[in-house]
User: What shape does this take?
Amino acid sequence: MTLTVTRADLAAPEVLTLLAAHAAHCSSLSPPESCHFLTADGLDVPEVTVWAAWDGTELAGVGALKALPDEAGEIKSMHTAAAQRGKGVGKVILETILAEAERRGYRSLWLETGTIEAFGAARRLYERYGFAVCGPFGDYRLDPHSIFYTKTLETPEAVR
Assistant: This one.
């Protein structure tokens, strides 16, 4: 499988359908107060960049990077289409987000995901890429349905 990753068109029917599937998936697994996904409108703001991974003409997955203060970013709305799971789609999207965060000079990345086993593949992916469990950040609060991760990125000064 060869994926093509592009900036997502948030008006495209395929993207809207996958974002709705993401919302439904999260809502079916966690209580409303523990769901932190962004709708298409919530993603369609200047501080958020959304990518779409395409397997030919089929949308395989999406993922977003939200700019935070202090040279940081938050990974949002990572979702792989059900038919594409287990094929490395999340890995490709995460690598795209990591590359963009480094290009922007971010010093850290943060994310929130679910604690139940349905989110296990996502947690394992983040951990393979060096994300470490941390406490809540930003406006998040302690929640038994949420787990938080962070990753310190190498800055150009650290590489020298």
In short: The helical segments are 13-29, 40-43, 89-103, 120-128, 156-159. The chain has a mean pLDDT of 93. The first helix runs from residue 13 to 29. The first strand starts at residue 3 and ends at 7.
